[in-house]
From TrEMBL, chains A, B:
<dbReference type="InterPro" id="IPR004523">
    <property type="entry name" value="Asp-tRNA_synthase_2"/>
</dbReference>
<dbReference type="GO" id="GO:0006422">
    <property type="term" value="P:aspartyl-tRNA aminoacylation"/>
</dbReference>
<comment type="function">
    <text>Aspartyl-tRNA synthetase with relaxed tRNA specificity since it is able to aspartylate not only its cognate tRNA(Asp) but also tRNA(Asn). Reaction proceeds in two steps: L-aspartate is first activated by ATP to form Asp-AMP and then transferred to the acceptor end of tRNA(Asp/Asn).</text>
</comment>
<keyword id="KW-0067">ATP-binding</keyword>
<protein>
    <recommendedName>
        <fullName>Aspartate--tRNA(Asp/Asn) ligase</fullName>
        <ecNumber>6.1.1.23</ecNumber>
    </recommendedName>
</protein>
<keyword id="KW-0436">Ligase</keyword>
<feature type="binding site">
    <location>
        <position position="356"/>
    </location>
    <ligand>
        <name>L-aspartate</name>
    </ligand>
</feature>
<feature type="binding site">
    <location>
        <begin position="401"/>
        <end position="404"/>
    </location>
    <ligand>
        <name>ATP</name>
    </ligand>
</feature>
<keyword id="KW-0963">Cytoplasm</keyword>
<feature type="site" description="Important for tRNA non-discrimination">
    <location>
        <position position="76"/>
    </location>
</feature>
<dbReference type="GO" id="GO:0004815">
    <property type="term" value="F:aspartate-tRNA ligase activity"/>
</dbReference>
<comment type="subunit">
    <text>Homodimer.</text>
</comment>
<dbReference type="GO" id="GO:0003723">
    <property type="term" value="F:RNA binding"/>
</dbReference>
<feature type="binding site">
    <location>
        <begin position="207"/>
        <end position="209"/>
    </location>
    <ligand>
        <name>ATP</name>
    </ligand>
</feature>
<feature type="binding site">
    <location>
        <position position="353"/>
    </location>
    <ligand>
        <name>ATP</name>
    </ligand>
</feature>
<feature type="region of interest" description="Aspartate">
    <location>
        <begin position="185"/>
        <end position="188"/>
    </location>
</feature>
<dbReference type="GO" id="GO:0050560">
    <property type="term" value="F:aspartate-tRNA(Asn) ligase activity"/>
</dbReference>
Length: 430, 430
């Protein structure tokens, strides 16, 4: 007998069906009880009259049920299942659940929820976050594959800390010291030059940053692209706009139910304003009396500037462009319009940076000279710099933080809510 | 003017086109030259008459070309492009290439090829390996998504070495010691129990094994699944058979050209023989006088037994089943047919194990007791064991080594050939 999901029950009425899931809620009326069965698709009302079995049931047990679905206007969803057989297939061994799964709200702190991820995810609203997150990944992959990009998997154990230095985790790799990659930056550039031309990677990135905030993780999923033969950084921004349009279309089609749980109205994107950083700093100062750090805007500035963009352009998104060279990595292509600026950008979404990108220097001598200008030693860059000797074409790329875009899309307060099992300075379990 | 790929040129003849790529080969005839342009799609013959530009061209430069495609029966593919303009957009800075890209064979060792991955991948035959690998990932994702599986991303930095112990890399995680995950095993089980029911993950796995062989990597990509409400391990083997059928269909449709480069004839799978390990050991002894280690077969045994299966069943694949409990992890479900055996399996493909899988113990007390029986301390398993207290359903799963299946499919000799940037005891760059 083939298993049927709770959400499929509308279509197959009046025949014996097999259901499997967890005991979500129970309401006893003496001789019978309503028992709510939860599976990955939803919750269905069971009617059980066998008092002996009722006395054995406990919340969150997993069970197999055979029964006949019938219409009942009063049951949630208009259907209930009259149970003929029920078998306990996964026993429970707890006294009290750490917090309720079947109530509207979780009566626990985020930290407790995260300590019991295997309980909190039993809530459909918590699982919905990760359904949407999986579809963001799907849309990313789908869009860039359609655009001719090739998927790569690059090493996360790397030999040298040249890109990040102090903010990297060290690994004891046999008899030497290695690092966990902060990004696939060097490798994605290398693969572009090696003839794949356009690549993307969905993979972990590691930052040993010494602060715990609502928007930082020490291990996160980075959605990276890199592509050759671009004209400049504006080509890259067009790719990101194309992706975002595709993403919201894809979510509309695949996550209606989950988006409703979080009252998400998907943005309609036509254009995304592109504003040079120094202009944004000027606006922040003039309009909000907000001073910015040299060559950047801070977290508060991002929030204020997003507010301004929302009012002026009716857009959740804004590209900040033309970051100064001093605030960007050594491989960033200098701008030809503004002295000291680069062909780089960040994308701010509802007050949070979700992307950093830009055109890269592709000429060997220019890159080497820039390293020297930055006070770096070209010989420390080994294979990376060497790979530019063989006809590297103009190229660039960007990275989107998966947990960040998920968080902002759903209006969550803390990035840990959009991370299955977050890693931060204090948390390394479960 | 929109760029056209070399492989698209059949369709758009006699109009000016824009091509971009690398100088693959040059044949000079004095006043003109055939210059072969390579892009990600293939190689096309250019005819260049401008002697000044010809004198500047060097192999592997990247260039932009405007020209008119014309039919020429003698040109490879029947088309050549008469060049009107050519611009060097990516200069070269080498004296000699480390090995040839445009010859039939690479005159270098595998180690040299790997040292210069950014050069060797310029060869279409090398890139083809990774095109096929990307499509294996695509097929995996597509098949299991279609089957209702949910994609997850679980941490690779973990707190405890309980699953693997000595074969794990350690990470300096702020002020404590952490490990790199050997597999997503604990987390995928946890997510099944947390209500996703069926999950898959495409992610890195780390093994600090102290040997360098043709079939081992210290960092590899693991294609993992885990699913609830199974009857036994045979359900899992059916999932793997289903995936393999889908995979070969998918490759047939998407990688014809690349498969031809390696003379691959895709297997037609109907059934895969399932043979208990002790039977396989008996056959090896009787037929090949080959002794096996206790509770396993070794690398030579895998090759001999695959030969036997090929002869007897005409199959590239064989499931070895019923491994003894002493050779499997503590969470493996005991068998109910053979004393001391487990509901576990390996899949051997052309003489190499590419999958390990099995049903897991889902009952809290049974798992705890098994830990004690194995001489382990239940309290060391913290959240993992704890997660079994809340109605864990029957479940199981398996993992496929991405580089291994790629290697065997293409008939490669060394797993490093099917790894973009391999990590082993001696290699951590590029």
């Amino acid at each position: 007998m083939k298993r049927v999901l709770a959400a499929e029950l509308t279509e197959i009425m009046d025949d014996l069906v097999l259901l499997k899931g967890w005991i979500h809620k129970m309401k006893s009326f003496g001789k019978f009880a309503f028992v709510f069965l939860r599976d990955k698709s939803g919750v269905i009302q069971l009617v059980i009259e066998d008092e002996k079995i009722l006395s054995q049931l406990k919340l969150e047990m997993s069970v197999e049920v055979k029964g006949i679905p019938v219409k009942n206007g009063k049951a949630p969803g208009g259907i209930e299942v009259q149970v003929k057989e029920i078998e306990i297939i996964g026993k429970t061994y707890y006294d009290l659940l750490p917090f309720s799964i079947n109530q509207k709200k979780v009566e626990a702190t985020l930290e407790t929820e995260l300590d019991y991820r295997y309980i909190s995810l039993r809530r459909p609203d918590r699982r919905a976050i990760f359904k949407i997150q999986a579809e963001i990944v799907e849309a990313f992959k789908g869009y860039f594959k359609e655009q001719g990009f090739h998927e790569i998997h690059t090493p996360k154990i790397i030999a040298s800390g040249t890109e990040g230095g102090s903010e990297m985790f060290t690994v004891n790799y046999f008899d030497r010291r290695a690092f966990l990659a902060q990004s696939p930056q060097f490798y994605k550039q290398m693969m572009v030059g090696a003839g794949f031309e356009s690549v993307f990677e969905i993979g972990h990135a590691y930052r040993a940053e010494l602060h715990n905030t609502w928007r930082h993780l020490n291990e996160y999923v980075s959605l990276d692209i890199e592509t050759a033969f671009i004209k400049d950084e504006y080509d890259l921004m067009e790719f990101e706009i194309g992706f975002l349009k595709h993403l919201f279309q894809h979510l509309e089609e695949n996550c209606k139910k989950e988006l409703e749980m979080y009252n998400v109205v998907l943005p309609k994107i036509k254009e995304i304003p592109k504003i040079p950083l120094f202009e944004a700093q000027k606006i922040l100062l003039e309009k909000y009396d907000k001073k910015s750090p040299l060559g950047n805007i801070d977290a508060e500035g991002e929030i204020l500037f997003s507010k301004y963009i929302q009012e002026e352009y009716n857009s959740d998104f804004v590209f900040l462009t033309k970051y100064p060279a001093s605030k960007r990595p050594v491989y960033t292509m200098p701008d030809d319009q503004y002295e000291g600026a680069t062909k780089s950008f960040d994308l701010i979404y509802k007050g949070l940076e979700i992307t950093t990108g830009g055109q890269r220097i592709h000429d060997y001598e220019m890159l080497r000279d820039n390293m020297i200008k930055f006070g770096l030693k070209p010989e420390d860059f080994g294979f990376y710099l060497d790979s530019f000797k063989y006809g590297m074409p103009p190229h660039g790329g960007f990275a989107i933080g998966l947990e960040r875009i998920t968080m902002k899309l759903l209006g969550l307060d803390n990035i840990r809510e959009s991370t299955l099992l977050p890693r931060d300075m204090n948390r390394i379990t479960p």
